[in-house]
Amino acid sequence: MKLYLSRFFGEFEVPGTTRGETPRAELGETVLVVEDDDTVRTLVVEVLGELGYATREAPDGPSGLCILQSDARIDLLVTDVGLPGLNGRQLADQARTGRPDLKVLFMTGYAENAAFGAGHLAPGMQMITKPFPVEGLASKIRSIIEA
């Protein structure tokens, strides 16, 4: 048995991303990253730092909520949906009682419908599915902050 496959000579590009410069921070924006997986949290914080964002980080919902209830500048909350205890959606909802205009990016390893049970996201909230390309994360963050 022989199997013949065509050979691809082009360059691979992830759908939904564009070639060019990765969007960078402007005006000293601060992003709070709440993620219980140390490796993922460290990676996201490192990438955001390289893009010029000031970052704060928390390993769980209650720690993130403490930061959000302080007077610290937070332009965007990036949180895992599946945090133990106080999950990402609960964190965002509680944070928005004191910061009604808080913008939120949820990270999830599941499809959006599975993560929120077909529930819709409120204005200022978006979702990104793990794993995601760095450029995709950067573009999504820039578009949320600018909206």
Short description:
Helices cover 34% and strands 18% of the residues. The chain has helices at 38-50, 61-68, 88-98, 112-116, 134-146, and strands at residues 30-34, 54-58, 76-80, 103-108, 125-129. The chain has a five-stranded parallel sheet, with helices on both faces.
Describe this structure in words.
There is one protein chain. By secondary structure, this protein is α/β, with parallel strands linked by helices. The chain has a single domain, classed as 3-Layer(aba) Sandwich (Rossmann fold), CATH 3.40.50. It contains 5 helices and 5 strands. The chain has helices at residues 38-50, 61-68, 88-98, 112-116, 134-146; strands at 30-34, 54-58, 76-80, 103-108, 125-129. The chain has a 5-stranded parallel beta sheet, with helices on both faces. Helix 3 (88-98) links the parallel strand 3 (76-80) and strand 4. Helix 2 (61-68) packs parallel to helix 3. The radius of gyration is 17 Å and the shape is globular. The N and C termini lie far apart (56 Å). The mean pLDDT is 85.
Question: Helices, strands, pairings?
Answer:
Blueprint: E1 30-34, H1 38-50, E2 54-58, H2 61-68, E3 76-80, H3 88-98, E4 103-108, H4 112-116, E5 125-129, H5 134-146
β-strand number: 5
Strand count, sense and closure of the main sheet? 5 strands, parallel
Mean pLDDT comes to: 85
Q: What helical percentage do the residues reach? A: 25-40%
CATH topology heading:
Rossmann fold
- Reading off the top of the CATH hierarchy, the class is best stated as Alpha Beta
Q: Can you list the strand order of the major beta sheet?
A: 2-1-3-4-5
The radius of gyration over CA amounts to 17 Å
Order of helices and strands: EHEHEHEHEH
Spatial gap, N to C terminus: 56 Å
| Main structural class | alpha/beta
Shape: globular
Poorly predicted ranges (pLDDT <50, ≥5 residues)?
Answer: none
Q: What fraction of the residues are assigned to beta strands by DSSP?
A: 15-25%
| CATH homologous group name | Response regulator
Count of folded domains = 1
**How many DSSP helices?**
5
CATH architecture: 3-Layer(aba) Sandwich
